[in-house]
Amino acid sequence: MVDQIEAVPRTPPTDRRALAAHKAAQLYYMQDMTMEAIAAELAVSRSSVSRLLSHARDIGIVDIRITSPLEGGVSLERELRSRFRVAAHVVPMPASVSEIERLERVAITAARLLTQFVDSNMTVGIAWGSTLSAISRHLPAKELHDVTVVQLNGAGNVQTTGIEYASEIMQRFGAAFGARVQQFPVPAFFDDPATREAMWRERSTRRVLEMQARMDLAVFGVGSPAADVPSRVYAGGYLDRADYTSLAEDRAIGDVATVFFRADGSWRDIRLNARTTGPGLDRLRRVPRRICIAAGVHKAASLRAAMAAGLVTDVVMDQGLAREVVELG
Prior knowledge:
Helix content is 44%, strand content 11%. The chain is α/β, with parallel strands linked by helices.
């Protein structure tokens, strides 16, 4: 019985039919698209889609998992691996899709891939945000034991505690993997760095920090103030005008779990980081597997910086974003 689907080319696809079969397999198995939707996207009939999927199985394209079959997709993955030493998963899609649909397609693929990475006896760190929320809605169930899911950063601000929002994401991850869920009920940013230092000495907070220090896997998006689908930290009232001014003066280009960094990967002297509740990037780099999920070309600069800084071991992104990152050099 096959539990998972993967498109692994046994031989390089060289003819047009093989390439079309690869694409149909990606859309059907990894993006949950119907045959009707695939037919519309490929401009073929529904029966042609059925034949393409059969052809994919017959020639050994469909086996255990799906990798990018498109001409260009594979080369982008190889280029990203060569430049940044990351395992890249490029999600194919036409440039005409909306940013909302782009995020959904990337989230569906990431959710499927996460079931391969999460295993029993693991501690998994989860950030919150628009991308992780989308992923959490598509997670397939996987029966595991002794898994702990721990929240990476606080979610409260002056408008809300953030507990309900973050809890919904965490509970979906917990339900998918049968995991214990540990929330982090602190603000996203303290008003005063001294408050954070005092809070970090509390035993209840230290317990969560110690869980984070034992993480086997961390899952996060990458924030960018220029994204068409804004990261929640930029759109949810977490930052005021003074914060934006401070980030601009410190040349911050993006964030991971509300910890900001520059294009060169530096982060320690960015002033807002003294008040954040996200894990320091040095600590994050010690996590054995660090999976970043991103959608939209406007995240190219921040994603490239995160990969260049060694924050990422695995990345899931749409094809347009992958191309933009490669073109940035």
